Amino acid sequence: MKNILAGPMDAIKADLATEITSPDRYKLLQRKIVLLMALVTLLPLLSLAAINYYEHQSSMSAEIQAPLRALVGKAKHSFELFLAERTSAVSFIASAYSFEELSNDANLQRIFQVMRREFTGFVDLGLIDTQGNQISYAGPYDLAGRNYAEQAWFRQVQFKGAYVSDVFLGFRQFPHVVIAVRHTTESGKSWILRATLDTMHFDRIISAMGLEPGSDAFLVNRQGVLQTESRQYGHVLDALPFSLPPTNFEANALAILDPQGRDIFLASAFIADTDFALVAIKPKPTILSTWYTVRADLLFIFVTGVAVIFLAVYRLTSVLIKRLQESDEQRMGAIHQMEHSQKLSSIGRLAAGVAHEINNPIAIINEKAGLMRDILNMRPEFPDKEKFIKQIEAILRSVDRCRGITHRMLGFAKRMDVKIEVLDLNAVLLETLGFLEREAQYRNVELRHNLAENLQAISTDHGQIQQVFLNILNNALAAVPDGGTITLTSWDKDQNFVGISVEDNGCGMSEETCKHMFEPFFTTKKEKGTGLGMSITYGIVKRLGGDIQVKSKLGEGTTITIMLPKKPVEG
Ligand code: ADP
Ligand code: MG
Is the CB of 534 within 6 Å of ligand 1? Predict the structure, then answer.
């Protein structure tokens, strides 16, 4: 069906249909809203949590690193003091005695004894001339007469004046260091005094650091060779299994991953005038266990918070979207209704115009035909008079029918006066059924009545109600197959309305047909239908203040229900 008015309305409808009927649209909208709300609420929460996390972590780390750094600083100081004391002792002896005094073994022995008494750790003492020859020696080893000219420390001390060697294993397989001092007299003569220290005292300083289990501290030289025992990374003179992070003379601390994959804090500092760095290590997990519980709590709160927010947002938007959908559907319904009444009123106006225009020529035909009949009646001698009169009467009957039609059309357009009377709807229904009984009988269609007894009489227009029933019953009869059933039901709906329904087990309607069935000129019956029945019915029912509903399933049947007010409506 297509009519001139359908164009713009269809466009609006199509627009609305795509906008509203697609269920994805609401899902999409809901997803967008949930996402946006989640973003708006979660973003601050997330950043807050992140900031909190990092602040806490860095302050925790600082709190742990600071004492570790201080510990290394203090121990480094002890090492420096220990070595400086011993270096100056050797230096003092080298300058307090002359070369001759020192080259005497007995003298040197005596001096060495005093030195050992005053300073712990010395193992031996020897005098060496500038050629590297050992001149005299006091100590447990038989080193007299040795030449050190080729040794690295000898060249170092010649050059630097004082020198502390790396740790080495002495003859007794004890770790030692060498302290060597060069002395030059005013006359330009110079000699070297060399003392060996055992490094037991190093271990003592380290154990004085009071390390907890799992922690570690050791000396390591610039080449990465351990100078003292390490609890975790090897023995004296083993290579440290990882390279030392950048270190200077100020103690500094940082977090690293050791070769065993442990998270550790490491503090280190070089010891002045030596090649050694002092390193202290604390494993991270034990240190940070408090922080880990705090973090777990934080995480729990965060996750629960997020879940609650998501749930709330989801529920809220669900409700909102449902409301939106409902209101959209209502709007859609209202627009449908509006469109409908607009169409009906347009067709009504059109019909009224046509009826009005046709009324005049029909009146003329009527008048002229009547005149012809009168003239014929006055001429008894007219040949074939009876035949003519019969034809003229046929014309007059057709004109009458035309009048009836235009009258109906005008009625549809509300131009006809509504004549309100008190009616028994059951009676009107049965009376209308009377027109169709013959056809029903002929086609073996069963007509069932299920009418309410004592149905309250209502005030309404007899002719129009009859037309409504006729249109509906006609359609039902057209829909049912031979041997089908049509059931008429009436009931007292409530204080203000009575209900009448016509149910058939006919062909039923598709959704599409249902949508359009009230539209003027919409028909599925090709030339057999006018498509006016239901639109006129709709117009009448609405005008009388009633309502009409359709329930139909393709192939199963249709039920048309109308509700009519008991009292006539104004206007
Ligand atoms: P017409 O009867 O001239 O086709 P109507 O306005 O009376 O026009 O009906 C419009 C259309 O509605 C019909 O063509 C038909 O497709 C459908 N229709 C109406 N009533 C029924 C019914 N009881 N069963 C099946 N289809 C129906
Ligand atoms: Mg019809």
Answer: yes
- CA–CA dist 39, 169 (Å, integer): 67
| Residue pair 518/524 in contact by the 8 Å Cβ criterion | no
How far does the chain reach from its first CA to its final CA, in angstroms?
32
List per-residue pLDDT tens for the chain, 571 residues long: 334 444 444 544 544 444 545 678 888 888 888 888 878 877 888 888 788 878 877 887 788 788 889 999 999 999 999 999 999 999 999 999 999 999 998 999 999 999 999 988 899 999 999 898 989 999 888 776 788 888 888 888 888 888 998 888 866 678 889 999 999 988 888 999 999 998 888 999 999 888 888 889 999 998 999 999 999 899 989 999 988 888 888 888 888 888 888 888 899 999 988 889 999 998 876 556 676 787 788 888 888 988 898 888 889 889 988 999 999 999 988 888 777 667 666 766 777 788 888 888 999 999 999 999 999 899 888 888 889 999 999 999 999 888 877 776 665 555 445 678 898 999 999 988 887 888 899 999 999 999 999 888 898 888 889 889 989 999 999 999 999 999 999 999 988 999 999 999 999 999 999 989 988 778 898 877 778 889 889 988 988 889 999 999 999 999 999 999 988 776 5
Residue 423 shares a structural domain with residue 278: no
Is 65 domain-assigned?
Answer: yes
Q: Which two tokens stand for residue 444?
A: 């073996």
| Structural domain ending residue among the three candidates 262, 287, 312 | 287
Q: Can you give the CATH number for the domain in which 505 is found?
A: 3.30.565.10
The reply to whether 565 falls in a domain is yes
Look at residues 181, 161, 202, 172 and name the one whose alpha carbon lies nearest to residue 115: 181
- Ligand 1 centroid distance, CA of 403 (Å): 25
The Cα 129–Cα 193 span in angstroms is: 9
62 and 204 in a common domain: yes
Q: Find the 533 Cα to ligand 1 centroid distance in Å.
A: 8
Q: Write out the residue range of the structural domain in which residue 505 sits.
A: 418-571
Residues 282 and 430 in one domain: no
Q: Which ligand 1 atom lies nearest to the CA of residue 471?
A: 7
Assign residue 157 the CATH number of its domain. Answer: 3.30.450.20
Last-in-domain residue among 287, 313, 329: 287
Segment (H or E) for 490: strand 485-492
24 beta partners: none
Closest CA to 130 of 108, 99, 105: 99
Q: Are 484 and 442 in contact (CB under 8 A)?
A: no
523 lines ligand 1 (CB under 6 A): yes
Among protein residues, the one whose CA lies closest to atom 21 of ligand 1 = 475
Alpha carbon nearest to ligand 1 atom 19, residue: 475
Cβ(88) – ligand 1 distance below 6 Å = no
In this structure, is residue 177 part of a structural domain?
yes
CA proximity to 94, closest of 66, 65, 128: 128
Query: How many distinct structural domains can be found in the chain?
Result: 2
Check if 524 has its Cβ closer than 6 Å to any atom of ligand 1. yes
Give domain status of residue 425, yes or no: yes
Q: What residue spans of 97-189 are helical by DSSP H?
A: 99-103, 105-118, 152-160
